[in-house]
Structures are given as C-alpha cells and as structure tokens.
Amino acid sequence: MPEIEEETLETNSRDEMLSPVKLVRFQRRAQRTDSIEVLQRDLLRLYANPLEDFMDFWPKNPSDYREKMGRYTKEVRKLGIHLFGAIMESLNLGGATHLKENFNQGMHMVVANRYSPYQESSNIKIGAPPHSDHSIITILLQSSPGLQVLDMADNNHDHHNNGTWKAIPKLEASLQVFVGDHLEVLSNGIYKSVWHRVIPISTSNARISMASFHNFQIDEIVEPAKELIDNDRPKKFKGSSVRDLLKYASSQKPVRLIDTHRII
Ligand SMILES: O=C(O)CCC(=O)C(=O)O
C-alpha cells in the first residue's frame, strides 16, 4: 500500500506562520500497511529581529526567559551575520553590500523544539520528518543526539529519495550550521540546502533543540545573484520571498517550493 503522508499543526493561533509567537504540536501522519504512524514534536516559535519589536510577545515565565533568550538570540544573530559575510566572500560577492544590508535587516526566527520521552511500542513516534529549511542559514543548538543529514555524495543533489542518512554527533559547546533553501537559490545552486531529520536516540529523556533561522526580509524576492549566472551556469531558479516559502510550507506539500521554481 502506498504511503500517504499528511501533516497537522495543532495550535491556538490559526493565523499560521506569521504570528510573533506560536506554540505548536507538529504531527506528520503516514499510512503504513496496517496502521497509521504519527511523527510528533512540540515547538515554540518566536521572531527575534528587531528584538525590541518582538520581545514583548515572548513568554514571561520563567521570569528570566526574555533576558536569557534575548541574550542568546542577539549573540546567535551576530554569528549569523559573520557567517553570511564569509559565505558572500566565498562566492566572490563580498562587495554586494545590498545583500549584506538586506541580511542584517532580515527575518530571524527562533524555534525551540521539544522531543518528549516516548515508548518504542507506541504508534506515536517522536521526531522531525525529512526536510530542508527555508532560511539562508540555520544555526542549531541541540541537547542530545538524534539529528541526521542526508549524504548525497554519490547521488544527484537535486533528488532527495536517494542518499545515506548520517548521524550528527552532539559535540559539547558546539553549534551546527545548515545551508537553507534560499542560500541554494541565491548562490544559483553552488551551495546546496541540507536535507535533515530527527530521530531521538533516548526514549526516556526529552531532547531539546533550538534552531535559529536567518533570512532576508520577509517580502524580498530572493533570486540567483546575477554575478553567479553565465553561459556555463545559467540561472537555475525563479525568485521567491520568505513569505512565499512559509505560506507554501504551511500548505504541507511534499515537494519544496524551490524545486517547483527550478528553471533547469
Ligand atoms: O531538532 C533538531 O535537531 C532539528 C530541528 C529542525 O530541523 C527544525 O527545527 O527545522
């Protein structure tokens, strides 16, 4: 029997991806041969740039939440800006100040994921399904192992059905950095967004992760940089904004928006 996948978002606020704070139980249901399997995680999503505009919407409990989370988001944002500068240099786009300015003023979304303890026998499995991120880059902090990335070294990078899942170890005091879909577009396919999923290792302890998604401004159309288009490397993608990617993600289609925007 073919696998049917359906995702549901359980949330108080139905105005989807753009409310300043959202608490969600994210479930993906898949019809297996003789049962329905559910893949579940809980997440709290906050916007964080500009911090002054959003912090008043953040949780007040525990009482130092805003102060500590504010400090973390400020530091991780600085890191994101440094990394973006280095990536631009690697693409010989170091002089493209409009891109840097846009990134500096861009959208910063922070998602705290909680993967609760679970029983192996339950048909509710805990984890995150295979996906890539809408961001330019994502910076991830994780409490314990469970993250896996698809290694497509021997495959055509544009297809995500093949490849080998590789576990990413949790290294003390380290962050992971992912290339997101909009960097794949901006770099005209030179950087590839990372296909990843989560299968928590421990059934008895919760796993927590904090993903910081760094984007351009929400309505900025992201297209391949013109400096990276030539006869040898023609333009690979049509443009899209972060708003387009978020709206599309909430429509829960199995194909990435940037793949539907592929020109070649
Ligand atoms: O929990 C993780 O390690 C990854 C989370 C993730 O992929 C996401 O929030 O998009």
Can you lay out the helices and strands and say which pair or pack?
Layout: E1 5-11, E2 21-31, E3 36-47, H1 51-54, H2 65-90, H3 97-104, E4 108-115, E5 124-126, E6 128-131, E7 137-142, E8 147-151, E9 164-167, E10 176-179, H4 181-186, E11 196-198, E12 207-214, H5 242-250, H6 257-260
Parallel strand pairs: 3-5
Antiparallel strand pairs: 1-2, 2-3, 3-4, 4-12, 6-11, 7-10, 7-12, 8-9, 8-11
The chain binds 2-oxoglutaric acid.
Please name the defining characteristics of this protein:
6 helices; binds 2-oxoglutaric acid; 264 residues; Jelly Rolls; 8-stranded mixed beta sheet; 4-stranded antiparallel beta sheet; alpha+beta
Provide an overview of this structure.
This protein has a single domain, classed as B-lactam Antibiotic, Isopenicillin N Synthase, Chain (Jelly Rolls), CATH 2.60.120. It has helices spanning 51-54, 65-90, 97-104, 181-186, 242-250, 257-260, and strands at residues 5-11, 21-31, 36-47, 108-115, 124-126, 128-131, 137-142, 147-151, 164-167, 176-179, 196-198, 207-214. The protein is α+β, with helices and mostly antiparallel strands and 264 residues long. The strands form two sheets. Strands 1, 2, 3, 4, 5, 7, 10 and 12 form an eight-stranded mixed beta sheet that branches. It has six helices and twelve strands. Residues 1-7 and 9-15 have low confidence and may be disordered. A hairpin with a 4-residue loop joins β2 and β3 (36-47). The chain binds 2-oxoglutaric acid (AKG). The site of 2-oxoglutaric acid has 11 residues, from β4, β7, β11 and β12.
